[in-house]
Amino acid sequence: xxxLGIEPVSEERITINVLDNPNGITVKFTGDIDMEDxxxxxxxxxxxxxxxxxxxxxxxxxxxxxxxxxxxxxGIKAVAKWIMKLSEVDxxxxxxxxxxxxxDITWQVTSLPTLTFLVPGAxxxx
Amino acid sequence: MSEKDIGKGYIxxxxxxxxxxxxxxxxxxxxxLAISIVDxxxxxxxxxxxxxxxxxxxxxxxxxxxxxxxxxxPKTEKISVQVTNIATPxxxxxxxKVYDKISRGNSLDAYVxxxxxxxxxxxxxxxxxxxxxxxxxxxxxxxEIEKNVVKVSIDIG
Lengths: 126, 157
Ligand SMILES: Nc1ncnc2c1ncn2[C@@H]1O[C@H](COP(=O)(O)OP(=O)(O)O)[C@@H](O)[C@H]1O
Ligand SMILES: [Mg+2]
Description:
The complex is a heterodimer.
Chain A: E1 9-11, E2 14-21, E3 24-33, H1 39-55, E4 60-71, H2 73-85, E5 96-100, H3 106-111, E6 123-125
Parallel strand pairs in A: 3-4, 4-5, 5-6
Antiparallel strand pairs in A: 1-2, 2-3
Helix pairs in contact in A: 1-2
Chain B: H1 3-6, E1 9-15, H2 20-36, H3 40-60, E2 66-73, E3 78-86, H4 89-102, H5 107-120, H6 129-137, E4 140-146, E5 149-156
Antiparallel strand pairs in B: 1-2, 2-3, 3-5, 4-5
Bound molecules: adenosine-5'-diphosphate and magnesium ion.
């Protein structure tokens, strides 16, 4: 478990764990997100993470995609929705989403950097 | 090399519209491309595109089965993926609308703008698949409509 008390999500071919890290919280994805409507699991999870991070004034969330083999466009939409929440947060509360990606997985190289264009300064990809 | 080896390679799949078959078709296409072309990054991109097109065919086709074909020119490694299905006039209208919007200008700008819009929607749709395919494959996305038959294809050079 983590400081925010967010339970892991495990559904079909995907497991998502929320873990503590020294600067905040890490959301780690393992498996495939290719169900018809991934927002059913992703939206509530990202909402909990976002609200918890603001409440505790953490400055960083690591989104670790390295073990995510596939993410469909409906899943990308859910991630974009999370990132766009940061456009409504005032400067004193802002946090950064650090996306960690796997260079050997093609979709991660082509998809994940595009997420930096949604809200200026909100996302870093490494 | 025999004549057969230099000809065009292809596979065709036809399946009943079940969501679970999409992952299976994606792996099959990925494996087919792994042995058909050298460029594995390209094979990955095409498998992603095929998967997005199949998702659409399963989500928006009316009744009929889903059909996908993948064609490979071995020498040039040119690939084309085509999905065919029957659709309602509403779906077709929407497809034309989205296609028009995302086919113009820079493909990254089109994709990012669809992402921003998607994040603000609350109707469960994302309207992101076609823009994603165009940007991430760098290919030529085409749409053909004849009465109620929809063909969406992507050519990757
Ligand atoms: N194979 C298809 N048959 C009928 N309509 C389609 C097909 N593919 C796409 N469409 C229409 O085009 C729209 C855009 O597709 P897409 O960009 O993949 O977004 P999404 O799948 O999130 O709706 C769909 O919402 C649908 O209305
Ligand atoms: Mg789609």
